[in-house]
Amino acid sequence: MGRENIENWHVKKCAKACDGCEEEFQHKQELYSCLFFEDGEYQRQDFCKNCRKKEASALSSWKTVFMVPPPPAEEVVQKENAESLLRKLMAKENEEDLNAIFILMVMLERKKIFVERDTQKAEDGRKLRIYEHKKTGESFVVIDPELKLDQLEHVQEEVVVLLGGKPRNTEPEVEVSADPEIAD
Ligand SMILES: [Zn+2]
Q1: What is the pLDDT of residues 63-120, one digit of tens each?
Q2: How far away, in angstroms, is 23 Cα from ligand 1 center?
Q3: Prediction pTM value
Q4: Residue 169 pairs with which residues in a beta bridge?
């Protein structure tokens, strides 16, 4: 299955209730999120202010705000955008997509859809960046491929092509052997 490496990047949803007192979080409530590395995988726990404790074993911890997740998107055919592509690539868990995943994440961070919470070093020495989705509170762990500038341009082009799979302008750029008499 080749799942050895894939624990490095992950999406963890924000809990609906405090992992300490089990009280449900309210919309816009301040909470404290911790990320642990246990049994070979990332575990996220979310605590209210009262239950927050100094988690010495936590890999990362940050303060955030609970947002009631938006209702599931209606069955509208959505255009591929940077976020949907990011989720798709992360779900595929292919090592080859790492660069594209990272570039998409940087794009989305610039758009203020994600905020970076922390950076960590993985056991294999790679740099991990922990991002949080501002609307849903999910945390995304992605590997920073530490691209060099020339690689960066190349990957950016790749991503643009991926995003351009469904071009906005659907008008085909084909030459129409137009008969000038018919054109009105
Ligand atoms: Zn609590």
Answers
A1: 888 888 766 665 555 567 899 999 999 888 888 999 999 999 999 999 999 999 999 8
A2: 6
A3: 0.67
A4: none
- pLDDT at position 38 is 79
| Token pair belonging to 93 | 């868990």
- Each domain of the chain, given as residue ranges in start order, spans 6-68+78-163
Can you tell me which residue has the tokens 């990320």? 35
Element (H, E) at 177: none
Query: What is the distance between the alpha carbons of residues 42 and 32, in angstroms, rounded to a whole number?
Result: 16
Query: What pLDDT, on a 0 to 100 scale, did the predictor assign at position 165?
Result: 52
**How is residue 107 written in tokens?**
């794009």
User: In angstroms, rounded to a whole number, what is the distance separating the alpha carbons of residues 105 and 43?
Assistant: 21
Q: Token pair of 146, please?
A: 């530490």
44 alpha-carbon distance from chain centroid: 15
Distance 11 CA to ligand 1 centre (A): 23
Amino acid at 38: E
If you search the block for the tokens 């000038």, which residue do you land on? 180
64 CA distance to ligand 1 centroid (A)?
A: 14
Residue type, 55: E
34 CA from centroid of ligand 1 (Å): 13
For the chain, the distance separating the N- and C-terminal CA atoms, rounded to the nearest angstrom, is: 61
